[in-house]
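pasting for the record
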Amino acid sequence: MSTFPKTFRHFVPQLIQMIILPIFFFAFMLIYRPDGIDTFLKSDMYGVHITIMSCIILVSMIITRLMYYFLAHRFNYPLYIFWCLCEVIFTSFFIGLYVWLIRGKDMAYLEVFSTSFQFLSLTLIFPYVIYAQALKIYDVHVNASDPNNDQISRMRFYDDRHNLKIVLTPSSILYITSEENYVNIFYTENGKLRHYVLRSSMKALEELCQDNGLVRCHRSYYVNPAHIKVLRKDKEGVVFAELNANETIHIPVTKRYYGHLSDLL
């Protein structure tokens, strides 16, 4: 899941896809006019119907792509393909309903829906595949041209709107803590302790932290084991992780995470 291109989650690609699919459908249906489409529509106003169907696709894409934009944080390739399939099914429902009505309900709706789905699938698969490949190539190009993208792995932190906010090496991060709708990322830069406030949640960062060696030590803390000097208990038996930073930093460690964390030291 972590290899899923971040570009797929940004808003601009969703906006472009909202526009590309109905335009491609409109142009394809006018230029190539697939066999059987005239019989299927059963009407002389071919251009009018294709225009209305393109508008239906546009509205459907606006709905589904806005939903995708707010839900896509944990998507991977299989989920993205499944989402695109659901988009075609969702759009086919309304296209089928429209065709069913202009035909005067002379055939079963499910039959019209099935035919609509076939036409849309065979038509829209081209822009779906081409655009997905273009986004993937663009994402690879951006990473390759990033001067900071060398052999050192880097953690890219995105906010709750999937906008890239800060890029850090895992080794520079001391710990991350949550505070309501924000997380505070504490890291070192040129030997100095710094922190960045990111609008996100601990749950959203879970996979990123796990993939880069940060471990949970408390419901509100992720810590970098490489920076832990020692685990200490206070007089009340509460465990704290003392970090090897220039400033004295103690991170709480709960019983639930103590065993795993101590095994890493």
